[in-house]
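Standup notes
- HV: blocked on the assembly model, inputs below
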Amino acid sequence: MRTKNENLVEYIKNPDVVLREEDIDGALLFNPDTNQIKVLNTTGLFIWKLCEKKHNIGNIIKALKNSFDQVPDDKASEQVKSFINEMKESGFIGIIKDQKE
Amino acid sequence: MKAKNSFHIIPTPKSVSISITGKCNLKCKYCFYANEMEGLKDLSTEQWLSFFKKLKDLNVMDVSLTGGEAFIRPDLFELIDGIISNNMRYNILSNGTLINENILKKFENGKRRLRLDYIQISIDGSCAEIHNKSRPNSFDRAIKGLKLLKENNFPLAVRTTINKHNLDDLENIAKLLLEDIGVSSFGNNESMPIGSGCRNEASMSLTNKEKLEAMRIIEKLLKRYPGRLNAQAGPQAKLKMYAEMEHAKKTGEKPKTWQMGYLTACGCVFSKIDILHDGTIVPCCMLPGLKLGNILTDSIKDIWQNNKIMWDIRNRRKIPMKEVPGCENCEWNEYCNGSCPGMAHQLTGDFNRANPEDCYREFKKETGGIDAL
């Protein structure tokens, strides 16, 4: 279950990252500062595009459920958090706001 | 009109190779960037900066800055900053002679060092006498530039172009680069009859017997320095390719990394495109005569996706070697890939031919082939 704290953290894409949509099934991201490439599936690409504007985890999950069929309630939250965390760790997205309660 | 094709291509090139100047402080004997290039005028700073913005819109990932000699441009770092501000990485191909402490300091500003993949320096001899035969009056300055880069921990690449003058010096070159200076590895290719190399072919290009000797030396060096010599073309690359052809013919086992029996070399037109210093767009620097347009007036994206010449080069892959003129009855046509279309075009006037420079049938006839090693 999400805590109130989690939704105070908002994420936004690193503006230097290059998005290449090379295939109908996904895309790749390129971070020119680290020379890292990340391959995205359609869900990852959807989340990346959401991060054009700032979003918290709750917003991202809600948008996913509105746009994709059969998003499992129990797993979606953990998977999105894991994806966002990985993207943050590798510098593809950043935190725009991290307020204390 | 959109050319018919059956290949999936990426929508825009990942990499762009840009000759930012036609000017050079050297006159190397095998320079491919010669003859027809001398009359073209360099684009201005503003024109290149405007082009880099267009590359950002195409999501290009990296650019290679070549020449001429890239460091001859006084606005080089302004151009580098333009590349960085448009979200790309870069590398520089250089003769190394203009690199000094002041230049290196300039790389420390902003993200210039962070976004630099490597600076490549050409070294063709272990001493001035040999290096200067192909790259006149430049050995001391090139070595000084190379050592400065190494001492300051710059990402480095070194390229040795094997030619008649340095064939017997290859072991000394390897020792100089890998032991004395301590670079991690170096690349090699060979002098080819294109550009100035065409004018100087008799004194520069290797004969098939000399190519075999180069392979013999490289084999020895690879045992002495495992993994520290690399090549995309030239004797080392051919040694690997010919060995795979012999193996496939004897066993029927074909390699998984490249397709035999079709004109499948090379992959460049599937991922990159080249720009000459006046903005002319060409498929590759080895095909400088095939002008596809100019960055000042034409769309790279449109040329990438729709230009007939680009598609004709990509579609080489559909042409079986047994249908290539001159290769119809060759016993190797099931195992060959025709090699570089640029050299084929240069030497035969048609990129849909095999490159005569890399013909294994001729090589084997003259030398006994790689079994003679």
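- HV (later): unblocked. DSSP finds 14 helices and ten strands in chain B. The interface with chain A takes residues 8, 10-12, 14, 59-62, 84, 87-89, 111, 114-115, 117 of chain B (CB under 8 Å).
- Next: hand off to the docking folks.
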